[in-house]
Amino acid sequence: MLAPAMWWRDAVVYQVYPRSFQDSDGDGVGDLRGIAERLEHLAYLGVDALWLSPIYPSPLADFGYDVSDYTDVDPRFGMLSELDALVASAHGLGLRVLLDFVLCHTSIEHPWFREHPDRYIWSPVDGPPNNWVAAFGGPAWSRDERSGRWYLHSFYPEQPDLDWRNPELVEAMKGVVRFWLERGVDGFRLDAVNLILKDAELRDDPPATGEFPFPRAAESATLEHVYSDNRPDAIQALRAVRAAAGDALLVGEVYLPTSQCARWLEVLDLVFGFELLFTPWEGEPLRAAIDRAVTLERVAWVMSNHDFDRLATRVGAENLRAAAVLLLTLPGTAFVYQGDEIGLANGPGHEPPFDRAGRDRLRHPMQWDASARGFTTGEPWLQLVDPQERNVESQRGDPGSLLELYRRLTALRRTLGEGFRLLDAEPGVVAFERGAHTVAVNTTAEPRTAPRGEIVLATHAETGLPPHAAVIVRN
Ligand code: GLC
Q: What is the pTM of this model?
């Protein structure tokens, strides 16, 4: 591991979706050697770390989020020795490496499911014992054909939930954490960690009283997930993970409003600030979302990832420059999803779909050059979206490109200074002070007034605060 601890405080973390980053062997699927070859792009961008979405062996019911072996690399991605080489190269460039730790469920094909069924959660009756609903819809209980018993799955039926109340499971998972830390990784993104524990008595969830502020499948939205999710004793369970992790970074995918996240920070270093991902690109809602989220001591800002519409699709291409400024000037850690730095939008997906929840269209391969051969010399597992229109090669070195804006921002954010205060602003403008600087982001299609001061960065050539623009001034 690289020193010092707490390196992540104001860091920028780049999310790599391994299938779609870089293929090195022409099979059309990205791999670890490919990622290693492209590390220079991350160093050029000026990010501090990369997070690899799951690289473990998996039957791909949920594209790697169904793990069948926690301590190996999927042969499609390469070998353990290539992961070691990737970590070493990354460290050589000053980049930290985070792995995705899918700790609440395994693949149904994980040997534990047969060999250690007591590491999973089973219904005490012959059928579902309660009304819990899976994240993508349908009951959260399925019958295991072999044993005839019913098991819990918070996601797809191919992803049985682990029982973190079983000390033997806890020990096994601590071993997994240690295994990867010994190989030199710098931390983990904890997948769906708000689901780590469920009510021990398996009580029914009550009907929903209010609206959950994040997207949920229709059926799931009819219930208040008080027994199946976000349990009070979850923090206790996570202490075991912390004990094994030492001071390695633990960033939680805590899929809850920030108002419910504070206690998770007792044991995690960071939780994602999903508010920014689910707030429309409009000044007042964004301002309110930021106001809520900054009350949390440590936030990992995220505006897009492999689960939801791509940033360009969600906010519109015209707002991408301003969105980059917002993401990279807020105080705290920022996560950038691969391709956002060149403005990659949703693609058409695949016919027939690989992902049953419709997420193929957010996972198209990285566009390295206009030829479409930059990603693979073979047939890409998902077609590239529009490599002629946007690619790394053409944006690199072009001072007006989105890529170069990201690069300027990763450098500039280090100089902004401590202190944060949201400012009153004109309608549709998000403005705040960061140290001795003021940042103003115009979410509207009309010009607004720029803050007074010496301009340090402007997203558009025109003076003032043009439509869809952002400026950073020194006060
Ligand atoms: C997380 C992942 C998502 C996955 C789910 C189940 O939300 O981001 O891709 O489907 O967990 O592991």
A: 0.98
